[in-house]
TrEMBL record:
It comes from Lederbergia citrisecunda. Belongs to the prephenate/arogenate dehydrogenase family. It is an enzyme of class 1 (oxidoreductase). Pathway: Amino-acid biosynthesis; L-tyrosine biosynthesis; (4-hydroxyphenyl)pyruvate from prephenate (NAD(+) route): step 1/1. It comes from the Bacteria. The keyword Amino-acid biosynthesis applies. This is Prephenate dehydrogenase. GO terms for biological process: tyrosine biosynthetic process. Residues 298-368 form the ACT domain. Transmembrane segments: none annotated. Coiled coil: none annotated. Keywords: Amino-acid biosynthesis, Aromatic amino acid biosynthesis, NAD, Oxidoreductase, Tyrosine biosynthesis. It catalyses: prephenate + NAD(+) = 3-(4-hydroxyphenyl)pyruvate + CO2 + NADH. Residues 5-293 form the Prephenate/arogenate dehydrogenase domain.
Amino acid sequence: MEDLKRILLVGVGLIGGSVALAIKKEHPVHIVGYDVKLDNCHLAKKLNIIDDCTEHFEEEAVRADLIILACPVEKAELFLEQLAHLSLKEDVIITDVGSTKSRIMEKAEKYFNNGIPFIGGHPMAGSHKVGPGSARAHLFENAFYVLTPSKNATNGKIDILKTWLKGTNAHFIIMDPKEHDLVTGVVSHFPHIVAASLVRQVENHSSKNEHVKYLAAGGFRDITRIASSSPEMWRDIVKHNQPILLGLIDQWMTEMNDVRHLVENGDSEELYNYFDGAKKYRDSLPVRAKGAITAFYDLYVDVLDKPGVISDVTTLLAQENISITNIRIIEAREDVYGVLRISFQTEKDLERAKTSLENRGYETYISM
Ligand SMILES: NC(=O)C1=CN([C@@H]2O[C@H](COP(=O)(O)OP(=O)(O)OC[C@H]3O[C@@H](n4cnc5c(N)ncnc54)[C@H](O)[C@@H]3O)[C@@H](O)[C@H]2O)C=CC1
Ligand SMILES: O=C(O)C(=O)Cc1ccc(O)cc1
């Protein structure tokens, strides 16, 4: 035990837990969790995600070889400041997993001018779920994992961190923190705000008309799924990426104004071209290409409404030894082709399931 390297994991939730599992897959190591929610720590220990829990952040920080900040981004900043005042191990590396990078990097450059390497990190995959119970070692498989090294971080230190994180099977890319925040603002943070606002619009209408709630199924649920993620996490992300998000909101308002004119004019060709342009661009986006932001391997299966059909599908998958993580019957058929949504742990399982079901005559669709 004494010889094992020690990792301090601050924030033992979905992402911290998944990183810990990926590290454990590749390295014999002693991981100690620290979390404001003690229950999360205890659950993670029970699930063998971490080896121990501590309530003494500083005591553990000075013993650690690697410190991973995996709590909401505003809290991560505070921990960084606390770490700067401690006598940490000479060879320690500090990293984080936060969804924004500029603010934490500014703080890291300010606090660690003593030589301690801080290497910002952002695994670009995840889910709307929270807590260690949803952590998975394969969560980041094939996803981009952005690294934003501070000035102190030599290539040697970056390589050591990549070796620690090898089990994620992610694709590491080094990015400038400002560029990172712009890109993630466009593809992740701003869409999250839009999803939340769509849900709130439906909520407003549902207080006036009881049917709204029941008809808000299918497509609406799909485009607003991310609105079910942790409000605490998104509060912090929006505060950290404020300037970029304000610019994107302004652009969106101009876009909505243009759309308003299109709707007002009612010109068939203009309306068609608007939707056609959006469809063409969306269809050209890489689907399940390496690095796409996704951790969901969902297959839609068109099934006839007759008894025994679900057991036929699940029996077939069981015979092929393909594990499923979730199965759901989707009642609104307009938005997706198919009525059964089956989720898998890996892309390989999804592809195998697709082939087996199609060989049996089912029509299947992969939808993002
Ligand atoms: N959820 C996602 O899909 C992704 C999230 N991230 C980033 O990962 C970080 C963690 O998010 P998740 O794991 O998704 O959330 P989570 O809610 O599953 O985990 C966060 C953990 O941090 C703990 N925590 C909160 N305040 C704390 C404090 N003051 N001290 C110690 N622990 C504290 C919480 O109790 C919780 O266990 C966030 O910074 C988020 O921006 C990055 C990539 C994807
Ligand atoms: O649930 C999803 O589809 C996500 O997009 C998850 C996500 C949330 C925050 C990130 O910084 C990265 C990925």
